[in-house]
């Protein structure tokens, strides 16, 4: 199983368990997160790039993978994602570089799935 399949499988399994607990607050948080990334005054691609940059600055690898994958699925180009990576590293500083490495590795896995 590659990194993308492993991430998606684990995320789905755990989200099902979390939502299956039927906790109103957790369900509302998940719903808010989903709705925040829908089309609005900002398009979905812009929102996903913003989410990816924020995730890198906050150093959340799971969040980075999620947003990198969404960006890939939305047709963000390699050049565009690398510009966003650059902004994340500018804002977050050199502490973000290890997360950048893993984000690039994940992007390459995504590219490999379509090759």
From TrEMBL:
Coiled coil: none annotated. SUPFAM superfamilies: AhpD-like. Residues 25-105 form the Carboxymuconolactone decarboxylase-like domain. It comes from the Bacteria. GO terms for molecular function: peroxiredoxin activity. PANTHER family: ALKYL HYDROPEROXIDE REDUCTASE AHPD, BLR3452 PROTEIN. This is Carboxymuconolactone decarboxylase family protein. It comes from Fulvivirga sediminis.
């Amino acid at each position: 199983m590659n990194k993308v399949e492993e991430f998606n499988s684990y995320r789905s399994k755990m989200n099902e368990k979390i939502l299956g607990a039927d906790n109103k607050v957790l369900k509302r948080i998940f719903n808010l997160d989903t709705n925040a990334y829908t089309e609005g005054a900002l398009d979905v691609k812009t929102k996903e790039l913003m989410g990816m940059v924020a995730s890198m600055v906050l150093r959340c690898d799971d969040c980075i993978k999620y947003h990198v994958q969404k960006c890939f699925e939305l047709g963000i180009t390699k050049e565009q994602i690398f510009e966003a990576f650059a902004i994340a590293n500018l804002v977050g500083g050199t502490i973000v570089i290890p997360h950048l490495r893993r984000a690039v590795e994940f992007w390459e896995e995504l590219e490999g799935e379509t090759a």
